[in-house]
Amino acid sequence: MSSARTPIREIVLTPIAFRDPPLLNAVGLHEPWALRTIVEIRIDDGLIGLGETYGDQGHLARLHQAAPALVGLDVFALNDARACVARVLGGAIGDDRHGLTGQINLSGTVDRVFASFEVALLDLQGQLLRRPVSDLLGGAVRDRVPYSAYLFYKWAAHPGEAPDRFGEALDPEGIVEQARSFIAAHGFSAIKLKGGVFPPEQEVAAMRALREAFPKHVLRIDPNAAWTVETSLRVARELDGVIEYLEDPTPGIDGMGQVATRTPIPLATNMCVVAYDHIAPAVERKAIGVLLGDHHYWGGLTRSRQLALLCETFGIGMSMHSNSHLGISLVAMTHLAAATPNLGYACDTHYPWNSADEIVAGGALKFVDGALPVPTSPGLGVTLDRDALARAHERYQRCGIRVRDDTGYLQRFRPEYSGKLPRW
Ligand code: GKR
Ligand code: MG
């Protein structure tokens, strides 16, 4: 049997910037612009595969290092592509963490770079086969993927700018108000609060206020390792019966294990288990009940499916992590979630905070009753709005930001701020 190869002819990388509101987290404040890189992989007959990945300069430099080596490879040769990325990176470990996603190691560095291309290759494979990407991942087991309302404490405006359309949220009332507007606009039935910003009592009060205002919604809180083991156990006692899982209350697999074995609430993570080498120690210490997967750093969509199988094997539930992102990432997440039978929770997404600067044709993607319909057209199911992409690239060139630095940005306004974890 013979099969025709479909070689990669060209890879184009376009760094972009889009507006990000002043969202607070355990290590600082979101800067006015979030960065991403748009990946385009072209083949001879004019088809283009799309991917979206981090825009920090270290990652962008690694993408530029790997891209030329991938040219000429068959678009179906994902194993060769990963081996090629590993070879080209040559054992150098990435230094950037793209937000609060834990310590990077070597396989994690390769996975982050490979994932950026893998999504675009799957988009091409789907277009060539005339099948949606979810079919390449084993087939969709759901036709809509539920997402959660991802709430943040936030300032009314970036200093020196006019207030944004989301308003201020610095206390329980502000958080409930934010939840109301997100739920009214998008229909979400799960709510996640990004914590680790105020002392834990204040954040417990916000969770209680959410419970009262939304008695039927499932709730979660994620302080990004801002609490000690003792504080985590105290909060877990106070929120028992209120939250479905507690995300990264404390740093490290050991600390998480000490909390997890003393509370009935499942602990979730996107910080202490972020690469395949972390799974064995986490299982051994019974540190986590839920893993928040993220194809951007778990090596793409196909390896994320393998991760889901590992989680199933060890009785770990699956949810999905997010960072500031646009629509190509959102559809990739949606195909993966659709084809992951053991994904049992509404996925995280920052999308409503960022979607006004969308670069896919047709503008912002729409949630229907809190869920995104799974695209059924070939590949990922989205194309680029070239003018919007050009504008987003111009913003990247002008914005002056090259590395995400939440701590440094907050320190400009509060020089005494340290971003130290755990803090309480
Ligand atoms: O955007 O501030 C943020 C989040 O804190 C993000 O960086 C985290 O990686 O959303 C993420 C999380 O669940 O920890
Ligand atoms: Mg998290």
What is the number of E strands?
14
Number of domains: 2
- The tally of helices reads 14
- Structure ligands: D-glucarate, magnesium ion
Order of helices and strands: EEEEEHHHHEEHEHEHEHEHEHEHHEHH
| Low-confidence spans | none
CATH class of the largest domain: Alpha Beta
Write down the overall mean pLDDT.
96
Residue share in helices? 25-40%
Q: How many strands, which pairing sense, and closed or not: the largest β-sheet?
A: 7 strands, parallel
The assigned CATH architecture of the largest domain is Alpha-Beta Barrel
Estimated structural class: alpha/beta
From the alpha-carbon coordinates, what is the Rg to the nearest angstrom? 21 Å
Q: What is the general shape? A: globular
- The spatial strand order of the largest sheet comes to 7-8-9-10-11-12-13
Distance between the termini: 64 Å
Under CATH, the topology of the largest domain can be stated as TIM Barrel
CATH superfamily of the largest domain: Enolase-like C-terminal domain
